[in-house]
Amino acid sequence: MHALRDVLGEMPLHRSVKGIRKGKPVPTVTIDGCKVEVEKDATVLDAAKKAGVWIPTLCYHPAVSSDASCRLCMVELDRGDWRQLVTACNYPVRRDIVVYVSSEGAQQARHGVMELLLARAPESQELKALAERMGVKETHYPKVTESQRNCILCGLCVQVCEEIIGQAAIGYAGRGVDRTVAAPFRQPSEDCIGCGACAAICPVGTIKVRIHKDEQEVEISPFKSRAKLLICEECGAPIISMQVSEQALGKVEVNCEEFRERVRLCPKCRRSQTAGRLKAATANKENGERAVNWH
Amino acid sequence: MTVLGNAKLRSTAELEHMQEELRARHTPSAKCVRVCTGPGCAVKGSPKLYELFCEAVERTGANVEIEAKSVGCHGLCECGPIVLIQPGNIFYQKVEEPDIAEIFRETILGDRVVEKLLYENPATGQKAVTPEEITFYKVQKRIALAGNGLIEPTKITDYIAERGYIALAKVISSMAPEEVVSEVEASGLRGRGGGGFPTARKWHSCREAEGLPKYVICNGDEGDPGAFMDRSIMEGNPHSVIEGMLIGAYAIGSEQGYIYVRNEYPLAVEHLKTAISQAREMGLLGQNILGSAFSFDIRINRGGGAFVCGESTALMASLEGRPGEPRAKYIHTVESGFRGKPTNLNNVETWANIPQIINRGGEWFAGIGTEESKGTKVFSLVGKVKNTGLVEVPMGITLRRIVEEIGGGIAGGKRFKAVQTGGPSGGCIPAEHLDARVDFDELTKLGSMMGSGGMIVMDEDTCMVRVAKYFTNFLQKESCGKCTPCREGLSQMLHILERITKGEGEVGDVEELEGLAELLEGTALCALGKTAANPIMSTIRYFRDEYDAHIKEKRCPAKECRGLFRYEIDPEACTACGICLKNCPADAITGEKKVSHVINQEKCTLCGMCWEKCPFTAVLKV
Ligand SMILES: Cc1cc2nc3c(=O)[nH]c(=O)nc-3n(C[C@H](O)[C@H](O)[C@H](O)COP(=O)(O)O)c2cc1C
Ligand code: SF4
Ligand code: FES
After folding, report:
1. Is the peptide bond prior to B557 cis by the omega test (within 30 degrees of 0)?
2. CB contact under 8 A, A1 and B521
3. With respect to CATH, is domain B464-552 assigned 1.20.1440.230?
4. What SS3 class is residue B535?
5. Which pTM was predicted?
6. Residue B181 C-alpha to ligand 2 middle, in angstroms?
7. What CATH number does the domain located at B376-459 have?
């Protein structure tokens, strides 16, 4: 029972604090015996990538800050007379350290976490594939918690929505096993612009983008949030959520008129229109006239 | 008397002068009634008693100077409401509204003792007039709770009269910050909030950490069910916490402090607020304290309402206005805490010890306790003991003395089974370790922990598997749900425990629990998850036979788990009164006049109605 030591172990000792300040700027990480040098404050995961060692991750994504909530990326850190399990995705390298990825303790920890996740989300194909790659065939735990369509609560969707999109249209509701990702009050969110970034980042395929052609709306399920779609003026195919195009207008430097003109059509129609114009231009050129400059 | 006005104190000399004046005014013959309004007595109606005393003072008043004081918890809540009369330090227990007139007439006006309100030693039958004569108090040593019961928490002058803020004055006028840290280091004080981390080491790290401003925080979240140590200090002696924080801030180099108070503690908030504004008015908080270059102020924040909000990083997130959820501590809060700045967090009781350590010296404090655990610890002693309440004992005292001498032994003539220490993620310690000493490391070795000071005594009728289930259920509900092992693992463990207590346990369940426990300890994000398996692990360690009885024999030895024991009627004791027969909702009991009754086990639904109703305790659990 060394939980207390675990907690205390995280406390920086004066000696090591000083060591960091005075130590060399490029610490060495020894991963399963392989030595790599990384920038100070890089993570163990960064080091592992450099060393070519694979560590399974779920809640980690380079685009957003790491919350280390899935606990799948456990590795063992050498602390002299004992080893501490740490999460590779956010453990900062501040001095020379030795870590073990394939040690029995580290593997056991990762397998244990994966088995718990499999019990929570037994239907997710993505999760199964990752488990298989880790060498976990199945879980021996029964499914005892109700999860929202296989959600493993990695939190990436919440983070991408807040940190990258800047909308914070979804967050957490409930505590403990009842925790879910939801829009405020579990109602469709007004803040959702229907960009689908959450669906794109979801590692287990829980979040889906649905197109409702009749209503000309995009729905982000399971949050039930909907956004109006821009519709191709030619063929009627949905292009992109209107708010996304509005926001994009604010973020990129383009000639607005021109951009509006562009997004009137879906990519397919735009291509055929451009092709048509090019054809006409070529024909005109042959007639000695100047080509129309489309953009 | 100019100093006693609300003028700002401009120097340490002015503070000392004021203290002398206050003490001089406090003539020893002054009569005073102290009504305990601590949590234990308050639920038994002591605020009303206080009011009645106040009214009586007004009515009789004139020639005798009588003061009615509302004070913090005295402990011995079992005997509440408690009233102390000065002079004489007369201790009255179980005081009720009608007693007030008598106390007034006899004791206050007539200087006579009201015998029937005195505490009687259950062993010897002797009456105790003063608290010193009661074993419950004799075995204790009060440092953190010293001021409780002595001072009126809403009066800063009371605190100052009892040498309050003298430690602050000493620090400001004659000690360098490093010297303050050294003094605390010499005391050996370790955090009282759970982890037992050396306080001086934390202060030093925070002092050394780069970045400004630095913050000091007081953790008054106290989420353990049934615990009220910190509450009593905040309610009963708020200035001791403020003075401790002032000294810490001076040592660390901080100008802003926060007290994070559990949302359910409105009186603590009120008393702290009053105390802070009084301290500000007197120049003990704010700019240039006591005329020095040191400035410091304190704000109060109300807690987020969840157990996990007491965890350091969750608390800081909550203070910042974000959801109270823990984050990884690989970079510790002394380096990057509240708002990403160096932050020193200590528990209420930790802070309350500081002024005394400065006043009486680190060495004095280190003289109390064991090699690695110094000073005293406050416990809230509850459960199946005769005396329950807040107790403060020197570290190193045995569990047996707490249970038997302070607690007065097990109530109802039952046998002791275990004592659970350390709050919901603590462990159960069995009878064979009753002589273990209360010490951070000793308790950890036994598979429990000091925690913040919960102490629940259990008797032979307690099923240890159910105890494990109770705490696991609490923790599962309080898990924030952020990380996988805690959220999913606790649910899995609870599921297994539920099966076992229903008689559906399978061979291998205990090993499964052990495996999950190890996984949680190693992989959970915060200490809630890391220590959550302690109740399970400690009960498996000491009461494995009970698990086995449930699993293999489908039997609950303590006869608490419904379905895992039977009800039977003892034919010798049965008087054939027919009460059970009438009350059985399942018509499972047969019998006639003068013929002892019998339970038909086929029909019995195990509701326990007969067991409850039988006036001759002839219904047995077997
Ligand atoms: C789930 C959880 C709940 C906690 N609750 C409290 C609490 O209510 N009060 C407290 O002082 N410490 C609590 N702690 C401990 C704090 O995280 C922290 O260690 C402590 O406040 C530091 O103060 P100390 O060094 O003076 O003990 C809790 C820890 C955990 C993991
Ligand atoms: S261990 Fe439990 S309480 Fe702590 S972060 Fe994980 S889920 Fe939340
Ligand atoms: S990937 Fe590291 S904790 Fe989730």
Report:
1. no
2. yes
3. yes
4. helix
5. 0.89
6. 33
7. 3.10.20.600
